Amino acid sequence: MNKSMLVGAVLGAVVVSAGGAFATYTLVDRGPEFASVLAVRPVKETIRTPREVCKDVTVTRQRPVQDSNRIAGTAVGAVVGGLLGNQVGGGNGKKIATVAGAVGGGYAGNQVQGRMQANDTYSTTETRCSTVTDSHEKIVGYDVKYDLEGKSGQVRMDRDPGQRIPVHDGQLVLTRQ
User: Fold this and answer.
1) Staple 43 to which of 66, 81, 141, 146, CB 3.0 to 4.6 Å?
2) Residues 57 and 72 in one domain
3) Which domain holds residue 89?
4) Are residues 58 and 141 in the same domain?
5) Ordered strands of the 151-157 beta sheet
6) Same domain, 69 and 107
7) Is the separation of the CB atoms in 125 and 142 below 8 Å?
């Protein structure tokens, strides 16, 4: 046999063997290409955002009191009451009526001034603010229940996979290609 014929025969055998092995490898069942999705449940997170809300309100205030002891009202009432009491009776009765009129007038003047001061008010507008919290839900992922060759499993994904999840070398492909 000739040397080139021997080399050719050996090379031919190698090529045929390699071609058969490659063909057999591509025909071998490498497992499923997809896992079936059984259920998908969105995972939500509540987002709370505080914000300030302000509004103008009308406020009624009492004016500052100049005479908190009501001395002016008491004095004016005592003088008027004394003058009126002096008009009644005669002799010692006149003196008693004058004193009684002064005391009664002083008390009445004190009370009148107190009511006047309490009713001396003014209105103004003030801005009142409060914090309110807005909230909304955000989907942060999906809990996916799946079936792969008769075995159930669960995985969290960043998206809804639809009806099936791709499988590569027996493993779920969880990211988008």
Assistant:
1) 141
2) no
3) 64-119
4) yes
5) 151-157, 121-148, 34-62, 164-168, 171-172
6) yes
7) no
Q: Which two tokens stand for residue 95?
A: 């003196």
Distance of CA 158 to the CA centre of its chain: 26
Q: What is the pTM of this model?
A: 0.45
Q: How much helix, strand and coil, in percent to the nearest 5, is found in the chain? A: 40, 40, 20
Q: Tens digit of pLDDT per residue, the chain (177 long)?
A: 577 776 666 677 666 676 666 665 555 555 668 899 999 999 999 999 999 999 999 998 888 877 777 777 787 777 777 777 788 777 777 778 788 877 888 788 888 878 877 777 889 999 999 999 999 999 999 999 999 988 899 999 999 999 999 998 888 888 775
How far is residue 99's CA from residue 81's CA, in Å, rounded to a whole number? 8
Strands 121-148 and 171-172, sheet pairing: unpaired
The phi, psi pair for 160, rounded to 5°, reads -80, 120
